[in-house]
Write a structure and sequence with these properties.
The chain has 2 domains: 214 residues, Rossmann fold, CATH 3.40.50; 65 residues, Alpha-Beta Plaits (2-Layer Sandwich), CATH 3.30.70. β6, α6 and β7 form a beta-alpha-beta unit. A 6-stranded mixed beta sheet has the order 5-6-7-3-8-9, with helices on both faces. A 4-stranded antiparallel beta sheet has the order 11-12-10-13. Strands 2-1-4 form a 3-stranded antiparallel beta sheet, with helices on one face. The relative contact order is 0.14. It contains 11 helices and 13 strands. The chain has 311 residues and is an alpha/beta fold. The radius of gyration is 24 Å and the shape is elongated. Pfam families: ABC_tran.
C-alpha cells in the first residue's frame, strides 16, 4: 500500500488561481475521500474545470495547498501520473489514430491494465476499432475517451462529462463502469451537467460557484429539507392551520398558498404524511389530493447558485 493511502485522495485548501483580472479560484477548499465517487457541479465559469485541471497537474494554483494521492500534482507529476486516469477530450487524441490502436497503446503503458479488447466491447467500441478517431461519432469519441481513462486501472480517475452525447444504452453502460470502479476501490471525480447522474452515482457532491465550494455532502444530505420539500394537499378553504402545526415537528411551515390549497414544508417521509392524514381524519377534512415532493439536487443547485446547469 502506498504510504499516503490512508489520507484523502484529493485535499485542496485555500486554492486561488487568476487569469488576468478574472479570479477562477478564490480560496477553494475540497476533500475527496478514497474509494468514493464525487460529482463536481457548477455553472459555466464557476471554477470547476480549473479545479479539476489543477488536480490533474495541468494547472498550477497561484496559492494554497493541493495534494492528490498525497503528492503535489505539479512537483510530483512523474510519480503521480501513472496512478491516475484522465478523460481526455478531443484535443488530447491524435485525429488519425485508430480507436483500437489508441486503446491498446495506452494499455501497454501500464503494468496491470484492463484487457483493452474486453473494455472496448463493453463500451460498444468493437465495431469501430479500425476507424480513425476523426471519423468516430461524437458518442463514440466520448466512449473512447472514457475507455482511455480507465484502461490503466488507476487509483484515481477524473471523468469530464463522461456521458455527454451518449445514447441511453451507452449511458447506462458508463454508469455501471463507474460503479464497478468504486467497488474495486478506485476513487472517481466526475464533472457532469446531469443532475440524475450525480444523484445516481455520487457518494458526495461538491457545488462550486465563484471559485469556491459553496456546498459539499452526500446527495441525501444536500437534498434534505428545503423550501420545496414536503407535501401539498387540497381541501376546504380556511382550515385551522394552527392546530395542524401543533401535531407536526417544531418549526414545520404550514401555509394556505391559495384558497383550499395547502403546503406543509418538511422532510417528505412516511411520518409527515401520517401526521397530516391523521389530523385530517380527526378534523373531518377529506383532502381532494395529497402530493409529496422531495427537494431534488437540481432544487439545491438552483437555490445555491441561482443559475441553471447547462452543457
Amino acid at each position: 500500500m502506498h504510504p499516503a493511502a490512508a489520507g484523502p485522495a484529493v485535499e485542496a485548501t485555500g486554492l486561488t488561481k487568476s487569469y488576468g483580472r478574472t479570479k477562477a479560484l478564490d480560496g477553494l477548499d475540497l476533500t475527496v475521500e478514497r474509494g468514493t465517487v464525487t460529482a463536481v457541479l457548477g455553472p459555466n465559469g464557476a471554477g470547476k474545470t480549473t479545479t479539476v485541471e489543477a488536480c490533474e497537474g495541468y494547472r498550477s494554483p497561484d496559492a494554497g495547498r493541493l495534494r492528490v494521492l498525497g503528492l503535489d500534482p505539479v512537483a510530483d507529476a512523474a510519480a503521480l501520473r501513472p496512478r491516475i486516469g484522465v478523460m481526455l477530450q478531443s484535443g488530447g487524441i491524435y485525429p488519425g489514430v485508430r480507436a483500437g490502436e489508441m486503446l491498446r497503446h495506452m494499455a501497454k503503458l501500464y503494468a496491470h491494465p484492463v484487457d483493452p479488447d474486453a473494455l472496448s466491447e463493453r463500451l460498444g467500441l468493437g465495431p469501430c476499432g479500425r476507424t480513425p478517431y476523426r471519423r468516430l461519432s461524437g458518442g463514440q469519441q466520448q466512449r473512447l475517451a472514457l475507455a482511455l481513462a480507465v484502461v490503466g486501472r488507476p487509483e484515481l480517475v477524473f471523468l469530464d462529462e463522461p456521458t455527454a452525447g451518449l445514447d441511453p444504452q451507452a449511458r447506462r453502460a458508463a454508469w455501471e463502469l463507474v460503479r464497478e470502479l468504486r467497488a474495486d476501490g478506485v476513487t472517481v471525480v466526475l464533472t457532469t451537467h446531469f443532475m440524475d447522474e450525480a444523484e445516481e452515482l455520487a457518494d458526495a457532491v461538491a457545488v462550486i460557484d465563484t471559485g469556491r465550494v459553496i456546498a459539499h455532502g452526500s446527495p441525501a444530505e444536500l437534498c434534505r429539507g428545503g423550501a420545496e420539500a414536503g407535501l401539498r394537499f387540497s381541501g376546504r378553504p380556511g382550515l385551522d392551520l394552527a392546530s395542524l402545526r401543533e401535531v407536526l415537528p417544531a418549526g414545520t411551515e404550514v401555509t394556505e398558498t391559495a384558497a383550499g390549497s395547502y403546503r406543509v414544508a418538511g422532510e417528505a417521509g412516511p411520518q409527515l404524511l401520517a401526521d397530516v392524514t391523521a389530523w385530517c381524519a380527526r378534523n373531518g377534512v377529506m383532502p381532494d389530493r395529497i402530493t409529496t415532493r422531495r427537494h431534488t439536487l437540481e432544487d439545491v443547485f438552483l437555490d445555491l447558485t441561482g443559475k441553471e446547469l447547462r452543457p
